[in-house]
Amino acid sequence: MSYLIINLDKGVIFISSNVNKRDKTHEIWAAKAMANRLIPHHPMKEKVMADLKIKYAEIIGEKEIEYTLSLLDQKKYLIMHNLRLKDGFKKYFQIDSLVLAKQFLLVVEVKNWKGKILFGTNGQVTRIGPDGSEEGYKNPIPQAKTQVLRLKRWLRNHNFPDIPIVYLVVISFPQTIIERKNPQDTIPYEVIHNSDLIFRIEEIEKQFTKDFYTRNQLSELAKHLDLSHCPRKINLFEKYNITPNDLVKGVFCPSCGALPMVRQERKWFCNACSHYSAHAHRPALADYIVFFGRTISNQGAREFLLLPSPNVTKMILQRESEFQEGKTKGKKYKLKWNKDEIKKWL
Asked: In this predicted model, what pLDDT tens digit does every residue of 276-310 receive, in sequence order?
């Protein structure tokens, strides 16, 4: 967790950040790598590009919500983002943001909707695009209610005391317009803009004044939730029904984006723009990781980077690996995953 807890005689004091931020570098890089490397004119190319656009919008929207929630009083609240938990039926559920207080828990269901959103009869949700096209969305209220139900079950299964759990559906982008489809239709009270989130939490505070948890219990709950988080593991080949043969290989030029660069005198050279780079292979190896994992062989690296020389490949892998195991042809390398460096490439 990214908050610091100090135990004192009078209880527990939360200092430093009260927010845990789950890093999504791997997810966004995986979407970008798939978009870049899936061969042109593949039947899934349009789907891949659409997913990348959605992923970028998701990251931007989540940052908007994270900033708003960071304004809450750190002495009163703990905040967790992107929790993925297993319920009593051995199935997973995800909570976009969870606000923890001694009096209540708040499930925040984030919607990164853009344009005009219309709420119609029986909760039907329609998005009107810039060109006037219509797209139907699932009603977010049943989804949020289901997350509350499953969180309650999770608390009982892990022997935590009962506590009121409420929910809000928060539209992350301020430009999004929320309207009724017809005069007789209603917009659910729980659906709000991000700009109203803090003020709605203040209303919830007034509704729940009784302490159900002590500070110690609240910190224990946060720790247990964090330890119980189960990151989603996505097999990109299964998700898009593709094979490794559907990927373009080689090192992209960091200057013009051309493929492939060639290795010349310990540097990479781009035939398209004459750019030289000493480390252009690093983003390519990050691509390899999201497709195949962090373990790589000399032959696997040569095939992916389009390197003819085993010795040159060996030198690169020795520099870009955390450790190696095995001998001669059976040697394997565990590639580094430097998320701070990768964020610079996004």
From this structure: 999 999 999 999 999 999 999 999 999 999 999 99
Q: What is the Cα Rg of the chain in Å?
A: 24
Q: DSSP for 11-75, please give it.
A: EEEEEE--EE----HHHHHHHHHHHHHBPTT-TTHHHHHHHHHHHHHHHHHHHHHHHHHHTS-TT
C-alpha to C-alpha distance for 138 and 227, rounded to whole angstroms: 31
CB 61 within 8 A of CB 172: yes
- Whether residues 209 and 255 share a domain: the answer is no
Locate tokens 């709000």: which residue? 192
> How many folded domains does the chain comprise?
2
Could you give the CA distance from residue 99 to residue 107 in angstroms, rounded to a whole number? 7
Strand order in the sheet with 125-128: 134-137, 125-128, 116-119, 177-180
> Tokens 């723009």, residue?
273
* pLDDT digit string, tens, across residues 108-135: 999 998 889 999 887 789 998 777 888 8
Same domain, 155 and 284: no
Candidates 251, 237, 244, 326; CA nearest to 286 is 251
Structural domain containing residue 94: 3-228
User: Nearest 5°: phi and psi at 307?
Assistant: -105, 125
pTM of this prediction?
A: 0.83
Sheet holding 19-20, edge to edge: 19-20, 78-86, 92-100, 105-111, 165-171, 191-193
Beta-ladder partners of 37: none
Per-residue model confidence as pLDDT tens digits over 317-338: 999 999 888 877 789 999 999 8
